[in-house]
Amino acid sequence: MVTIDLTVSGYLSRLGKLTNEVLAEMQPGELPGAAVNWADLQCNDVRLKAGQNGLCVQVVVSEAAPECGELIGAVRDGLAKRGLSPVELATLEIITEW
Questions:
Q1: Which residues neighbour 24 within 8 Å (Cβ) at sequence distance 6 or greater?
Q2: 94 - beta bridge partners?
Q3: Distances from the Cα of 32 to the Cα of 36, 48, 58, 91, 94, angstroms
Q4: What is the per-residue pLDDT for 5?
Q5: At residue 76, what are phi and psi to the nearest 5 degrees?
Q6: What is the pLDDT of residues 4-34, one digit of tens each?
């Protein structure tokens, strides 16, 4: 029997694992010039945030320059390939930080 965790914490945990899978598959040559510490790159937090347009999900990736657009785009593409819906992607905010 397969059990699916439909709680918010289960969803956030799953999203963190998917993000780390995307990051683990990336190669430095894919994002030339991106300010990234490839050795320690990881998703270290996933959280809900209330904003002006309602709730969004923030995925925090550590060991990359703040607002590293190349990495953010690559993570978003990787999550889409892993089945995140357009609605999920629309409410997703990816933050990069050292």
A1: none
A2: 59
A3: 10, 31, 25, 28, 20
A4: 57
A5: -60, -45
A6: 556 888 999 999 999 999 999 999 889 988 9
Q: What burial letters (b/e) apply to 89-98, b meaning 16+ CB within 10 Å?
A: eebbebbbee
Q: Which of 14, 23, 88 is nearest to 57 (CA)?
A: 88
DSSP string, 20-71: HHHHHH--GGGSTT--B-TTT-EEEEEEEEEETTEEEEEEEEESB-TT-HHH
> Domain 8-97 carries which CATH code?
3.30.300.20
Q: How many CB atoms lie within 10 A of CB 8?
A: 11
Residue with tokens 């995925």: 59
DSSP state of 79: H
Residue 96 to residue 98: CA distance in whole angstroms: 7
